[in-house]
Design a protein that fits this description.
The chain is α/β, with parallel strands linked by helices and 321 residues long. It is built from ten helices and eight strands. It has an eight-stranded mixed beta sheet, covered by helices on one side. The termini are far apart. 44% of the residues are buried. It holds the Pfam family Glyco_hydro_6.
Length: 321
């Protein structure tokens, strides 16, 4: 990576001064600093396939899910977060690939939904955690999805809790800007079924979106790429009209191949979507949620816990039944 950074620095120095110092959330493009996306060698489907070669579902899960680049989620289960994030992006950097990471540890996480409740013990604990996360990535190229669900549902929160959450997110973005200059951070914006575009534009702006590279949509949900693209474009129109700027956005396509049936928690009959790629109607289409990992004790995942890999659900999702 060092030779790419030197080349980038030389190119920036050669630019006219007014362009070189133009304000930007990040100076570098991690997609041009790497050669494709990183496949997590220790994802839950990878581990399941390795342990179940004789299972009749293993070949399909391996071919259609386990070898697709997808995000690794980081939270309290990750141990020393600076070390964990650093090891992951370091492994990707050594093979010249772009890693996808999800920061999922905000204080009062999933406060209204409850299926993924938890997170840091306090706002100050989160501030320390996210600072170590950014520091672990450092100057290596990465993409980070910042705190799925955090802006989607304010229905049970007081204004003081909302202000506190938005302050944590603004502080997190500042840490990435300070410590991880080659990381694109996308502040999560829920999905089109949660909040209208004007409301989401306001929430994003108040949570510090101007500091982020962009925003993410449809994380762990099932709405079609077309629905999310239309929503993202409308959010940007609202941002432009109200605040004078717009941002790129990415869409989680991991489970939206059949669209949504109106249920969000382990619905039956869903299908994997377009694999991780640049473009596709958004800046990137990404597998952020791992297909086959449970949303919680509900639907076809009854009896499971959030994040648990369910091979039968994964297998059916390949074929859409």
């Amino acid at each position: 990576m060092r030779h790419r950074l030197r080349a980038l620095a030389a190119a920036l120095l050669a630019l006219p001064l007014a362009l070189a110092v133009a304000p930007s959330a990040h100076a570098a493009d991690p997609t041009t600093m790497t050669n494709g996306f990183y496949v997590d060698p220790d994802s839950s489907p990878k581990r399941w396939v390795a342990a179940n070669h004789g299972d009749g579902r293993a070949a399909a899960i391996n071919a259609s899910i386990a070898n697709t680049p997808m995000a690794r989620w980081f939270g309290s289960w990750s141990g020393a977060i600076g070390t964990a994030a650093g090891a992951y992006v370091g492994a990707a950097d050594r093979v010249d690939k772009l890693p996808l990471l999800v920061a999922y540890n905000i204080y009062n996480r999933d406060y209204c939904g409850g299926h993924s409740a938890g997170g840091a013990a306090s706002p100050s604990a989160y501030k320390s955690w996210i600072a170590q996360f950014a520091g672990g990535i450092a100057n290596r190229p990465a993409v980070v999805i910042l705190e799925p669900d955090s802006l989607g549902d304010y229905g049970c929160m007081t204004q003081a809790q909302i202000d506190e959450r938005e302050g944590m997110l603004t502080g997190a973005l500042a840490e990435f800007n300070r410590q991880a200059p080659n990381t694109w951070v996308y502040l999560d914006a829920g999905n089109p079924a949660w909040a209208d575009a004007a409301t989401m534009a306001r929430r994003l702006h108040e949570a510090g979106l101007r500091q982020a590279h962009g925003f993410s949509l449809n994380v762990s949900n099932y709405l079609t790429t077309a629905e999310n693209t239309a929503y993202g474009n409308t959010v940007n129109r609202e941002l432009g009209a109200r605040y004078g700027y717009s941002k790129p956005f990415v869409v989680d396509t991991s489970r939206n191949g059949n669209g949504s049936n109106g249920q969000w928690c382990n619905p039956a009959g869903r299908r994997i979507g377009t694999p991780t790629q640049l473009g596709g109607g958004a800046e990137m289409l990404l597998w952020i949620k791992t297909p086959g990992e449970s949303d919680g004790n509900c639907g076809v995942g009854a009896g499971s816990s959030a994040g648990q890999f369910l091979p039968e659900v994964a297998y059916k999702m390949i074929y859409g039944y």
